[in-house]
């Protein structure tokens, strides 16, 4: 699981991480720290030396686990998505869509974060993991753009979230 906020809301981020930590601990307390480190390594935009979002859990290649227990954990983790995201969305109601007032133009570069790690440029465009470029790019919002060397204003909400992307943290 990964959350890719445009702005840093500590209550939302702590709720997101706490929900998945509880789910991991319910199954096995060793899972959460292992999966958190794995997420921090997996959800990286290596060309920019930052994460695409503020990931909590990632797991893959768990062949040494009991498959029945692993399947139950995976189902429970998936079923945590709605209880996790619901409060985040409700808490966002009434907030400006683009927190700093800079509007859609300022927000557009951040809307592409989830797509960047899936697309790699080498000998033309190829999708990581063999994915179809069309499928990946259709997940973009209607308005998206990249800015070369973008540096947000120090102390701004944009700078706060970029600092979180560059420095993975222990949120809970």
Strand content: 5-15%
Tell me the structural class. Answer: mainly alpha
Mean pLDDT: 76
Query: H/E series, N to C?
Result: HHEEHHHEEHH
Biggest sheet, open or closed, and with what strands and sense?
A: 2 strands, antiparallel
Q: What is the alpha-carbon Rg in Å?
A: 17 Å
Number of helices, counting only DSSP H or I runs of 4 residues or more: 7
Shape: globular
Poorly predicted sequence stretches spanning 5 or more consecutive residues: none
Strand order of the largest sheet: 1-2
Describe the structure.
This protein is mainly α. The chain has helices at 10-27, 31-42, 67-79, 81-92, 104-107, 133-137, 157-166; strands at residues 44-45, 50-51, 119-121, 125-127. Helix content is 43%, strand content 6%. It has a two-stranded antiparallel sheet with strand order 1-2. The protein has a two-stranded antiparallel sheet with strand order 3-4. Helix 1 (10-27) packs antiparallel against helix 3 and helix 1 packs antiparallel against helix 4. The protein starts with 9 loop residues before the first helix and ends in a 6-residue tail after the last helix.
């Amino acid at each position: 699981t990964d959350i890719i906020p445009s702005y840093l809301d500590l209550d939302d981020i702590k709720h997101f991480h706490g929900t998945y930590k509880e789910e991991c601990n319910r199954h096995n307390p060793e899972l959460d720290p292992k999966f958190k480190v794995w997420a921090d390594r997996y959800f990286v935009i290596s060309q920019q030396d930052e994460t695409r979002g503020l990931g909590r859990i990632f797991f893959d290649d768990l062949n040494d686990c009991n498959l029945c227990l692993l399947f139950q954990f995976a189902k429970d983790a998936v079923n945590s998505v709605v209880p996790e995201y619901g409060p985040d969305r409700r808490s966002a109601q009434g907030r400006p869509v683009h927190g700093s007032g800079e509007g859609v133009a300022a927000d557009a570069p951040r809307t592409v974060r989830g797509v960047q790690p899936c697309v790699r440029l080498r000998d033309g465009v190829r999708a990581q993991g063999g994915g179809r470029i069309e499928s990946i790019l259709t997940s973009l919002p209607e308005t998206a753009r990249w800015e070369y060397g973008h540096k947000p204003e120090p102390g701004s909400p944009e700078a706060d979230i970029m600092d979180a992307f560059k420095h993975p943290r222990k949120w809970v």
